[in-house]
Amino acid sequence: MKKKLLSRQAKLKLETEIRHRANAGRVAIKSQISFFRRHFGQVTSDWKADASRVTFADIAISENLFSSLNKDFTKDDFCSEEMSSDDSPIHLEGDFSWVLDPIDGTNNFALGFPLCGISLALLHEGFPVYGFVYDFSVNALFEGGAGFGLLRDQQKYTSLSSDRESRQMIGVQFPIEQSLFQKLIPIFSDFKIRALGSSTLLGSFVAQGYLAGALDVRAKVWDIAATYAFAEAVGNQFHFLNESPFPLREFHPFMPQCPYFTGSKAFCAKIQSLLS
Hints:
Number of helices: 7
Oligomer: single chain
Order of helices and strands: HEEHEEEHEEEEEEHEHEHEEEH
Radius of gyration: 18 Å
Largest sheet: 7 strands, mixed
Number of strands: 16
């Protein structure tokens, strides 16, 4: 489903609404960074029904961040990976919704490995229009969306894509089902592979130009909503192997995976040719 066309006046109004929320989102994430850094590698773990790790820090960041945003945007919908699995699905009825992964790379965070961060996306009518990724490994906040560009700590970001080495590196999340793996074998000889343990950082690194592309068959919508907006900010492509989760109309922590690949036109064409 495509986004509907807007009049000039409607576009200006929407841009104002997005900027207002982006400013609030930035403040909300920054308020959680010291907590994130203080508990890095210092938390005990629990395990969810799907055998994924969760810590009290995930839950605390989720509650604190949404409590802050809800004060100003009471009509928005708020969706977090850490909502209770016993809750009913959230039907997204407002014009705007927020999708949060309070700690992406929870295994890394709990074990003291620095590839982890916070991912927050703003959606309008179910489509990501602005994203935030706090990257703990470089202690920087990346943000952006279509028409806004990509920023690092509120400064225009200069892409690394012109670097010869970055054009040879891609990110892949494992494990990959065997029949799909067989189709993808050529990329393992064509590119240098990076596997990070963080779906969000993979997408963020692609938008930054550090990676030429990424393929992730294990991602959930909260892993990729922010970096979907990043891809649009820098003109990268973003493709789903199955049906796109956008426009997002309903949210629940047991939503199915949304395998995808993203990156430069050349990388995406390579993946498409292998899959076809």
